[in-house]
């Protein structure tokens, strides 16, 4: 748990510097320079990695791969279809057991049990899709609200992206606190994610109320990137609570999901499970873009308007908050599966691995017994010869 907290803490610390410095350069100094700085940074990082790549070579443990995982699914489905077609008795505890060699499949006990442990995480991954959609409102809907609010702070024009630092501060504070309570956290991982989802729901709901509040302020002119825009005179810091709530959610959910994904699978497929978590997070980003497009077309540009003062963006936020509320209580129904991570899941497979080894030893003993029996039938003359 400490590893994940420190990892995300360093990432967000770097993000806080980036959102303040580079966004200010892009908005107030030169727009193209704001793109040039990260480009040069990435180029330097690639050169550095290439120079030290010989010291970073890592050989993953053999025994499982993504093709093997998909093969277990395919083998189980094939055996299930064959048994169903020919009305064969194939009662097993789990449908993936059909992929085992002793049930007509092609894979060992270890591969099937590893795949079952990965399948156990899929509900967790699925409930993170809508959560990630809400998190992506910061660089989309929340930025639109900020851009249409008063960014003038005592004569200094704040960068729009600087508001993102408000959502990063909770993570920078909570990550060290949670690190010191690792033992306590490991028993309540499901509850922690549930609280994070509630915080996400409250954030999106608060965004809807603040959008209504923003429209009650008179309009003023504000220059952004050389363009004069009519924006609300409401100070942008009024939007801080929705950023804070989303930051609290990120501090609770992201490291905990990574910990669950890492601990509830055997050591040899942890890399695959982390890839699946990333895949579902990416699916949440695409779902967010899809929902925005559907809402824009379905409401004819009213729920997600081109000009906020002429539309009803708050309706979109309330709609998204209602979806997130259903998603939160759906996760609560399955959250008990992901509590108490003090015992690694590798220990749960020791029994099956031990059985395989005993079967191998039993076969070896039978083989040697047959050799001894055959040797005992040889005559003393033949033995002397």
Pick out its properties.
385 residues, mainly alpha, Growth Hormone, Chain: A, two-stranded antiparallel ribbon
Give structural notes.
It is a single chain. The protein is mostly helical. It has three domains: 2-52 and 121-341, MFS general substrate transporter like domains (Growth Hormone, Chain: A, Up-down Bundle); 66-116, no CATH class; 347-372. The protein is 67% helix and 4% strand. The strands form two sheets. The protein has a two-stranded antiparallel sheet with strand order 1-2. The protein is globular. Residues 344-368 and 370-385 have low confidence and may be disordered.
What is the CATH-assigned architecture of the largest domain?
Answer: Up-down Bundle
What fraction of the residues are assigned to beta strands by DSSP? under 5%
Average predicted confidence as pLDDT: 79
Number of strands: 4
**Overall helicity:** 55-70%
Would you identify the regions where 5 or more consecutive residues have pLDDT less than 50?
344-368, 370-385
The CATH class name of the largest domain reads: Mainly Alpha
How far do the termini sit from each other? 68 Å
Q: Tell the overall outline.
A: globular
CATH superfamily of the largest domain: MFS general substrate transporter like domains
Kindly report the spatial arrangement of strands forming the biggest sheet. Answer: 1-2
Number of discrete helical segments: 14
